[in-house]
Amino acid sequence: MKLEMEGLTAGYGGKRVLDGISLSVKKGEILTLIGPNGCGKSTLLKTVGRILRPQGGCVLLDGKSVHSMNTAELAKQMALLPQTHSAPEDLTVEQLVRYGRFPHRKVFCGLDSHDCEVVENVLGMTRLEGLRKRNLSTLSGGERQRAWIAMTLAQEPEVLLLDEPTTFLDVCCQFEVLELIRMLNRTLNLTILMVLHDLNLAARCSHRLAAVKNARIRYCGPPAEIIRPEVLEDVFEIKAEIIDGPDHIPCFIPVASCKKGGDGK
């Protein structure tokens, strides 16, 4: 399922945060939005996910405007996991995952056999079978994030939107969550648009990176074209050394700031 943004403009009140964004995410692709704080990455994801209404332009899902689609029908095709989320602490993992079936359920009806099968499959894919009866409050950060991802998967979406899925996790948990996302992309052919702050992790798990700056897409391409000294200096105002990492995926080491007043200038 193809996801497209055409001339997308959005903001809050009179403040324009996005200005004429045009971007396409191919079916089965992982595209990650990167950029400095406050550049509009999360605003773009919220606009695509219909949390925020665009001031101009449109978001298309296989040629249909997401802002004119029926909410339940859209939820069967696209799922959004925001950066911050909450649920009652006494809710179990299985109960949370079952909530993902809500768009597919008939009014006043419980889960049918297919719903239960989907929940079982999702618990298996996310390695949560042994935690199904545990309360969310008893889980580690990585386990809790896997549970929330499982809930979105229970919607059986074709497009998954993730806003900082590794926030507040330690390095090992970050890697595990992103490995899970890559596995889901490969096995389910999910189209994934997400926001990440860690550029090295973004480069390792993404087919393409889109760098946002000054309300626009400044660069877009495979990691090898984006994790480059001149791009990082322009977008993040840092000087960096680039290393050819495993599988020839680039990673960078920041060595100095290029902002005025940084590096003695």
Structure description:
By secondary structure, the protein is α/β, with parallel strands linked by helices. It folds into two domains: 3-226, 3-Layer(aba) Sandwich (Rossmann fold), CATH 3.40.50.300; 237-265, no CATH class. It is built from nine helices and twelve strands. Strands 6-7-8-3-9-10 form a six-stranded mixed beta sheet, sandwiched between helices. β7 (159-163), α6 and β8 form a beta-alpha-beta unit. α5 (141-153) runs parallel beside α6 (171-188). The longest helix is centred in the C-terminal third of the chain and has 18 residues, at 171-188. The radius of gyration is 19 Å and the shape is globular. The model has no long low-confidence stretch (mean pLDDT 93).
The name of the CATH superfamily of the largest domain reads P-loop containing nucleotide triphosphate hydrolases
Named CATH topology of the largest domain: Rossmann fold
Q: Helices and strands, in N-to-C order?
A: EEEHEEHEHHHEHEHEEHHEE
Give the end-to-end Cα distance, rounded to a whole number of Å: 48 Å
CATH hierarchy, class of the largest domain: Alpha Beta
As a percent range, the share of strand residues is: 25-35%
Count of structural domains? 2
| Basic shape | globular
